[in-house]
Amino acid sequence: MAIREEQNERIAATVITGFLGSGKTTLLNALLSHPTMSNTAVLINEFGEIGLDHLLVREISEDVVLLNSGCICCSVRGDLISGLRDMFLKRVRGEVSAFDRVIIETTGLADPAPILHTLMTDPLLTNKFRLDSVVSTVDGVYGNSQLDDHAESVKQAAVADRILITKADLATESGLKALEARLHSLNPAAPVYRVHMGDIDPDKLFNAGLYNPNTKSLDVQKWLREEAYGDDNAAGHDHGHDHNHTHDDHSSEYAPHHGHNHSHDVNRHDDHISSFCLTFDEPLHWDAFVTWAEIFTQMRGENLLRIKGVLNIAGEDKPVAIHAVQHIFHAPATLPDWPSDDHRSKLVFITRDLGPDVIRQSLLQLNAASTETNGPGHTSSK
Question: Range with the lowest mean pLDDT among 111-115, 222-226, 240-244, 344-348?
């Protein structure tokens, strides 16, 4: 992996995922009618599936329409890469307005990972687009049973940056609180919001990536949100204590526990999911981290659902941000400065059947071997 300077002016891309019937279409319709969404392009599978007739102004081409809100909507019948490329080329040629955000709706795709991999690896897309956020919808009435019965539903929530509980008006308060607690346990760093008919301020869903367009800067702390995993995880240990944080009836951003004490139900899919943050006091050697990443993604990539991290690399003054989804690592980015006086390496993990100890020990062993070989301040060419 080669470290590059992060390109901040790329177009933000948001992926909306969620299990069948969980309200993705309702959410997207509500978002597209919002006045602040006018500089947005949307990629969906078929126009007919989302019912855009009341939003349609005119047809630009067979697959592209302009909506009342000013949004550009594109029907992607084939490959996502070609759809994004075509949309970007239309933007360059002036055939569509200069949108600054893309929303990709994953109807028919149970697993969001292939789309995330595409956004992280295609050369044209990585130069023109940046993954900003993954939004997952969870059915307020049937969400608990879907999490029990469908591993895909668990994965959608686990990799999300924002989680929306839909149909909250049809569910009981006790059921909603139980679902919220479960989602927070599954993915502590993702704010969870209750929504009715897709009604939510778009600002709550976007700008979850490393780059903050409002400040024109890299917002490491907001992106990483390592504080959501609790102080005990600073040493790299599982955190299983309750935090009695308060939350209102419509949104919640607390993490009641992430120890997954649900052994009473051996079929519960999210019992296999772990969420933790590892912190390393000593600088890491870049060659050791790359070796660890290559070995782990090759052998256990399916178990590494998502990784975010900021690294203190031996011999480097500036931090390095890394981001991975399963076996795919995004190109690491050198950040302009540390966000605080805390210069420790921090890695946030969402894993399946893979705890923190084996990850921590394997990385420390490789780092120690690199220190013995190269010395404490050595770093290889990046």
Answer: 240-244
